């Protein structure tokens, strides 16, 4: 009779499996500007959402170890489509880099179009297993972040908060941001209770996020 794995053993398996998943070559599938162009829903789909310039593309590059996979820019609003990525040899996983929301300096019509695409996707994708909502650790949850979280709660779409740019603030300020974020999501229906703290530049939390994505593909 075999004994159940301990939580430490399970964590080690998830970390190694996540590492191997993201060690595969990843490729850009295509950019999508309307819901009709999305591939047929199937397998596990996860998405990265967040305000413009929060670091979505940088985080995807860090996860995959491919610096040029997702385009990065210091100009907010650069990502204007749903950008789809897939690991080589894994047909049941699709990663979606979403357009940033909340950027007011673009033309209003363009901002409205991006926001409609974002919200339509989040509400209407049946195989979307989890949305990783990126929050800049220097600023915490802002009003437009709260609007997105409320929409996800209403749609019963599971989401998890990922604090980005943790290397850009001091330890005490980071602790305060974590505590404030935990308090704000505690009563939210669809929020995953654990926050992932990351730094794309320093590599902090990248292994944890890889493991989390891998776990979703096995459930």
TrEMBL record:
<keyword id="KW-0460">Magnesium</keyword>
<dbReference type="GO" id="GO:0005829">
    <property type="term" value="C:cytosol"/>
</dbReference>
<keyword id="KW-0717">Septation</keyword>
<dbReference type="GO" id="GO:0046872">
    <property type="term" value="F:metal ion binding"/>
</dbReference>
<keyword id="KW-0132">Cell division</keyword>
<dbReference type="InterPro" id="IPR006073">
    <property type="entry name" value="GTP-bd"/>
</dbReference>
<dbReference type="InterPro" id="IPR030393">
    <property type="entry name" value="G_ENGB_dom"/>
</dbReference>
<comment type="function">
    <text>Necessary for normal cell division and for the maintenance of normal septation.</text>
</comment>
<keyword id="KW-0479">Metal-binding</keyword>
<dbReference type="InterPro" id="IPR019987">
    <property type="entry name" value="GTP-bd_ribosome_bio_YsxC"/>
</dbReference>
<dbReference type="InterPro" id="IPR027417">
    <property type="entry name" value="P-loop_NTPase"/>
</dbReference>
<feature type="domain" description="EngB-type G">
    <location>
        <begin position="42"/>
        <end position="219"/>
    </location>
</feature>
<comment type="similarity">
    <text>Belongs to the TRAFAC class TrmE-Era-EngA-EngB-Septin-like GTPase superfamily. EngB GTPase family.</text>
</comment>
<dbReference type="Pfam" id="PF01926">
    <property type="entry name" value="MMR_HSR1"/>
</dbReference>
<keyword id="KW-0131">Cell cycle</keyword>
<keyword id="KW-0342">GTP-binding</keyword>
<keyword id="KW-0547">Nucleotide-binding</keyword>
<protein>
    <recommendedName>
        <fullName>Probable GTP-binding protein EngB</fullName>
    </recommendedName>
</protein>
<dbReference type="GO" id="GO:0005525">
    <property type="term" value="F:GTP binding"/>
</dbReference>
<dbReference type="GO" id="GO:0000917">
    <property type="term" value="P:division septum assembly"/>
</dbReference>
